[in-house]
């Protein structure tokens, strides 16, 4: 439980300036964070996310993965304005000069390019066009893009369903993290350097205020990277929050993500603390997913009052205290306490499946709209993770 001092701070937080990023369901979460807390967000990088308010549209299982129908993005933008009018999110005028990088690969068969094209269209209503950078031209799969390494561009069209080593990132000769850093922090950004293998482990359940954390949609622990120059005074450094895509509630893939996307390397050379909050997901949002459309889990999930977004924001507001009590590991190993509590906790294992309706309808609808060639076959159905429970007739984002 929170100490009295932390409880007071959690109720009356002063949020620091941050930047955000994310991929897939995490890309949607990053957009939600950027919009809900726009008064303190300096920049964002979104890979394979969806427009703000996408979950409010009809059939979000299709719309947020394959692309909105004509006129639906306007409805999502009106939804955003209504959220602001009701005081649920910051004034969207704060977004006007916020730099945003949007990325989607042409071989992404999980979140189609059309979704990110519409995300661009929506953000252009609120952000100056010269502040938005898009890259939708690479052959990347459902991944984050880097500019080095053996993982060829186009591997893993469905994301981390296959070999984890090459389904977190693709080498598409595009430095997404570097592009984001330069857009957000300017010409003073230093080239990336070798990052430390040291990771900090923050108990994020201590900042969960929406009932018993054991029944929450987040894992118990958050991973953080703290560069050497920030160890003495982390609150004086830049601060970044990265939201992962859907991933099974085990630690190997989650640690690999934090050490593969080059944010730590840029953080080390530019004095930036990186927080990697961890979702466990739910029946509604999917296994290991951030809440991208599950109003049944949280009617305010995409606002400042959101259970998940609020938790992350409270940690940013109490960064020094959180890190002072964090566990530390090196070499990609788990701290013993993290392993013990992980074994004790009953984390959610659910479905990564498209579901029979969402999978077939998504491709057929695309064909009818002329987005695929007439003779083209539907993409191969992604394999399910072990222990996955298939929800027939329901589609989920990865």
Key phrases:
two-stranded parallel ribbon; 13 strands; alpha/beta; 13 helices; 398 residues; globular
Your description of this structure?
With 398 residues, the protein is of the alpha/beta class. It has one domain. It is built from 13 helices and 13 strands. The chain has helices at residues 4-11, 25-36, 60-66, 72-85, 113-123, 164-167, 176-185, 251-258, 263-270, 307-317, 319-324, 336-344, 356-368, and strands at residues 18-23, 41-47, 100-103, 132-135, 144-146, 169-171, 199-203, 221-225, 238-243, 272-276, 281-282, 286-287, 327-329. The protein has a 9-stranded mixed β-sheet, sandwiched between helices. Strand 3 (100-103), helix 5 (113-123) and strand 4 (132-135) form a beta-alpha-beta unit. Helix 3 packs across helix 13 and helix 4 packs across helix 5 (113-123). The radius of gyration is 19 Å and the shape is globular. The protein starts with a helix and ends in a 30-residue tail after the last helix.
The poorly predicted ranges are 351-398
Give the tally of β-strands: 13
Radius of gyration: 19 Å
Amino-to-carboxy terminus distance: 32 Å
Shape: globular
Q: Going across the biggest sheet, name each strand in turn.
A: 4-3-2-1-9-10-8-7-13
The pLDDT mean sits at 86
Q: Roughly what percent helix? A: 25-40%
In DSSP terms (H or I, runs of 4 or more residues), the helix count works out at 13
SSE pattern, N- to C-terminal: HEHEHHEHEEHEHEEEHHEEEHHEHH
Percent strand equals 5-15%
The major beta sheet can be summarized as: 9 strands, mixed
How many structurally independent domains? 1
Given helix and strand content, the structural type is alpha/beta
């Amino acid at each position: 439980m929170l100490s009295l001092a932390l409880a007071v701070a959690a109720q009356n937080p002063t949020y620091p300036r941050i930047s955000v990023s994310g991929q897939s369901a995490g890309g949607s979460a990053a957009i939600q964070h950027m919009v809900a807390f726009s008064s303190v967000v300096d920049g964002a990088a979104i890979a394979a996310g969806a427009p703000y308010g996408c979950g409010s549209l009809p059939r979000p299982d299709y719309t947020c993965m394959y692309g909105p129908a004509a006129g639906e993005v306007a409805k999502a933008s009106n939804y955003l304005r209504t959220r602001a009018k009701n005081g649920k999110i910051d004034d969207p005028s704060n977004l006007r000069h916020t730099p945003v990088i949007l990325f989607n690969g042409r071989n992404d068969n999980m979140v189609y390019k059309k979704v990110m094209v519409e995300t661009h269209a929506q953000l252009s209503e609120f952000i100056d066009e010269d502040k938005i950078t898009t890259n939708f031209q690479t052959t990347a799969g459902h991944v984050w893009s880097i500019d080095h390494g053996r993982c060829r561009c186009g591997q893993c069209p469905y994301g981390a369903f296959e070999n984890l080593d090459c389904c977190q990132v693709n080498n598409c000769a595009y430095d997404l993290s570097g592009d984001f850093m330069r857009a957000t922090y300017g010409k003073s950004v230093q080239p990336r350097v070798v990052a430390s293998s040291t990771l900090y482990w923050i108990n994020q359940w201590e900042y969960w205020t929406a009932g018993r954390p054991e029944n929450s949609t987040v894992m118990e622990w958050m991973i953080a990277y703290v560069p050497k120059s920030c160890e003495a005074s982390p609150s004086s450094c830049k601060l970044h929050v990265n939201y992962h895509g859907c991933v099974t509630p085990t630690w190997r893939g989650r640690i690999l993500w934090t050490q593969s996307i080059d944010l730590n390397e840029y953080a080390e050379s530019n004095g930036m603390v990186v927080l990697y909050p961890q979702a466990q997901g739910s029946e509604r949002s999917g296994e290991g997913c951030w809440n991208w459309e599950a109003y049944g889990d949280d009617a305010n999930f995409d606002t400042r009052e959101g259970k998940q977004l609020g938790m992350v924001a409270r940690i940013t507001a109490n960064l020094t205290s959180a890190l002072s009590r964090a566990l530390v590991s090196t070499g990609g190993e788990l701290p013993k306490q993290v392993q013990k509590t992980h074994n004790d906790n009953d984390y959610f294992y659910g479905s990564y499946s498209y579901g029979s309706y969402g999978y077939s309808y998504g491709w057929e609808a695309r064909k009818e709209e002329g987005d695929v060639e007439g003779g083209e076959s539907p993409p191969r159905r992604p394999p399910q993770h072990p222990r996955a429970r298939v929800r027939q007739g329901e589609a989920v984002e990865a």
